[in-house]
Each structure stands twice: as structure tokens, then as C-alpha cells.
Amino acid sequence: MPVTPDTILLEPLATHHAEAFWPHAQSDALYAFVPIEQPGSQQELAAWFARLAAGAPAHLNEEWLNWAVRLPEDGAVAGIVQATVMPDGEAELAYLIAPAFWGHGIGRVAVRRMIEWLWHERAVAVLRAVADTRNLRSQALLDALGFVLAGEVASSIRGVPSTDRVYAAQARSVLRRA
């Protein structure tokens, strides 16, 4: 399945995406390196998507942007991409691509398209992303997009200590890459 920007759509995340993503949301591998609890039902997944789609609470003074990564060929939802945009024009990125779609470039294309949108629509210049040190796929994705390692911080996933790698990039640099 060759992946190009034309072979995926980023749609504003909504509760209806839970139905298409539910079969993939049941994979334990999806949650191995992220501090997200696996939903126990399609309704729990829809409720989580609804919370994300509602945006950040006003007191946080940040904007939450969330998109479903849809494959128009068959309507599948391969994952979600997320950006938390700060008032200073910086954004922290996150992404969750289902294991069934790993290794096809979908995450790389989706994150790059999100960065394009953030650059053009929100003037985001500075990007950050975090990847668990054990999540080699996520680190490779960030490397491929031109992010650089900025440091490491102690973390935990479901009470188990871990270490996160913090990556940074300039949106302009990412967008200049082929």
C-alpha cells in the first residue's frame, strides 16, 4: 500500500470515528508505549474521542487539535494525530497509529500533513514531540521528519517507570524535507 499525501485524509476527530477505529483500538500493542488506558468498549472510545474533540478547557490557555487519519480507499481509520498549540506559537505533537498500519508510512504522512496545517493555519513554528525510549518506531518517524533529540525526562506508563525522549523541530525545516 504506497502512501502519499493523497492516500490519507485528516478529518477533525469526532465520536463517529470510534466505530471505524474500534477494531484497531483493541490491540494491546497500540498502548505499549503511551500513557493512555485501553478503552474497554466502543462507547468508551467514543467518549474519549468526544473529550478530545471538545478541545482544551479554557483555563489551560492552549488549543487542542485532533484529527482522525482516514484511508479514503476503504474508509478505515488508521489512527489519530494531535497537536496542543500554546499561545507562544509552539505545539506539542502526538500520534497514535494502529499496529495494522505500521510500516506503511501512514504515520509519517499524517504527521507531516498535520505540521503543514499547523504552519499555514496557526503559524506554529516550533514543534515538540515525546517518544518512550523503547518506542523505536516513533523515534524513527520523528527522525525521518527531521526532529532532533533535545533531551530525556523520567516518565511512567500505568505506574511503571520509563524514560521519554523529547524531540524538537522547526516547522519550516520539516516542511522543506522531501
Automatic annotation (TrEMBL):
Q: Which residues form the signal peptide?
A: none
Ranges for domain N-acetyltransferase come to 31-173
Q: Name one Pfam family in it.
A: Acetyltransf_3
Going by the entry's taxonomy, the superkingdom of the source organism is recorded as: Bacteria
Annotated protein name in UniProt: GNAT family N-acetyltransferase
Annotated source species: Niveibacterium microcysteis
